[in-house]
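Regression test case RT-17, inverse folding.

Input:
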């Protein structure tokens, strides 16, 4: 069987690409259903894009690579598509757009778009062999025990990254890149909770607090959640993409607030209030209790000198913690790094040294922040490749 294009992976990027590609297109996936990560994303409501998506929200060895694709298929284009399909959505916070009802609507929309474009979808299908031919590629596939030998002019790698192997994530795109001599950047779990092996945060599990988290030169103002294993919540997931083993994370619990001035004013107005009671007006009470011994919190506000209050605010604004590690690919939302973009055209996503070979989505070394940015990259890069097929 001959196809113009075969797309490996019926995830976000692969389906988007198939919906816009010309010619005879086949999408293959080893899963039982397409778009499994879309289905579980955003707590089942899919944070499908971000109003503020811009190149600054992406990490890559080449920060310029994502610019062209993001500019040619924007968040507004995807919002338009979603709206045309009558899918109701809302902005949750920080420009993050979610379906009102279900992430399954996004999958149904992409399947409908793919089908309308004439693309075929083969599920439960594995790649057994891949070879370059003079005019393209020869593939041997296994579909539930049946062998198929196919050829195609274009091959699109859209099998994503390594996060959540239980959901069928594999390193297939990386293996194929290697087969064709394309470089990889270091891959690591990202948008992932931190672990502390000493279990120090167990008593605080479930407590959430707004913080500014800083590591590796980046800062995020979002919520932090204490867990049985360590620290999670959007602030920690975001900063995990910038953190490296052995390095501390700096946490500002004052969230840039003028806490010192507030504490001084309260000392004047309510001097007999316990300092822990006053702090519990600004931070979760369980956290204040847990921090009290380390911060030597005792006595009333009236007992606290200016110097003591200043030192206290400084400690609260520069809480330095060194995680033991992260929860790894088991729970990471994305893989940081991937197929090195240097070998690809940023306009078409085609490998410069292997005509007809394309890579899109998470498989490529472009990783978005938390908040709908990773799907936007999947839509934009999938669309960019489709224009060149
Ligand atoms: P994706 O992983 O979507 O698709 C890859 C496809 O390839 C899969 O269908 C897989 O089965 C298939 N495949 C893999 N190996 C194969 C093989 N060997 N043979 C055949 N097929 C193979 N992002 C965001 O912007 N907003 C959000 O709300 C969320 N939420 C979220 C929650 C959770 C729990 C996770 C794990 C991730 C997110 N993300 C997210 C990230 C987002 O899901 C991710 O970045 C995109 O799905 C990447 O799209 P791709 O198409 O590149 O890969």
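Golden output:
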């Amino acid at each position: 069987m001959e196809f113009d294009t075969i797309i490996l992976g019926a995830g976000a990027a692969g389906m988007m690409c198939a919906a816009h590609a010309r010619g005879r297109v086949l999408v293959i996936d080893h899963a039982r259903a397409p778009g499994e990560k879309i289905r579980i994303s955003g707590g089942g409501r899919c944070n499908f894009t971000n109003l503020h998506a811009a190149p600054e929200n992406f990490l890559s060895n080449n920060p310029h690579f994502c610019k062209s694709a993001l500019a040619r298929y924007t968040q507004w284009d995807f919002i338009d598509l979603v709206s045309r399909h009558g899918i109701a959505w809302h902005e949750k916070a920080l420009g993050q757009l979610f379906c009102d009802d279900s992430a399954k609507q996004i999958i149904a929309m992409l399947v409908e778009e793919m089908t309308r474009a004439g693309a075929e979808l083969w599920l439960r299908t594995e790649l057994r062999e891949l070879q370059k031919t003079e005019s393209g590629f020869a593939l041997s596939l296994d579909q539930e025990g049946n062998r198929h030998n196919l050829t195609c002019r274009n091959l699109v790698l859209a099998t994503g990254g390594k996060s959540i192997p239980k959901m069928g994530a594999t390193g297939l795109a990386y293996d194929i890149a290697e087969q064709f001599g394309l470089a990889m950047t270091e891959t690591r779990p990202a948008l992932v909770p931190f672990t502390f092996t000493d279990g120090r945060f167990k008593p605080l599990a479930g407590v959430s607090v707004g913080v500014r988290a800083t590591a590796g030169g980046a800062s995020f103002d979002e919520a932090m959640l204490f867990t049985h294993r360590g620290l999670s919540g959007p602030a920690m997931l975001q900063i995990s993409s910038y953190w490296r083993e052995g390095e501390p994370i700096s946490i500002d619990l004052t969230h840039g607030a003028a806490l010192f001035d507030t504490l001084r004013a309260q000392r004047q107005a309510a001097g007999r209030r316990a300092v822990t009671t006053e702090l519990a007006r600004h931070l979760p009470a369980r956290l204040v209790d847990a921090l009290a011994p380390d911060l030597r919190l005792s006595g009333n506000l009236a007992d606290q000198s200016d110097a003591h209050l200043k030192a206290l605010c400084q400690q609260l604004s520069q809480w330095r913690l060194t995680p033991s590690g992260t929860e790894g690919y088991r729970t990471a939302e994305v893989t940081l790094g991937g197929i090195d973009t240097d070998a690809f055209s940023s306009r078409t996503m085609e490998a410069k040294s292997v005509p007809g070979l394309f890579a899109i989505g998470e498989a490529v070394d472009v990783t978005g922040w938390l908040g709908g940015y990773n799907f936007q990259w999947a839509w934009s890069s999938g669309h960019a490749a489709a224009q060149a097929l």
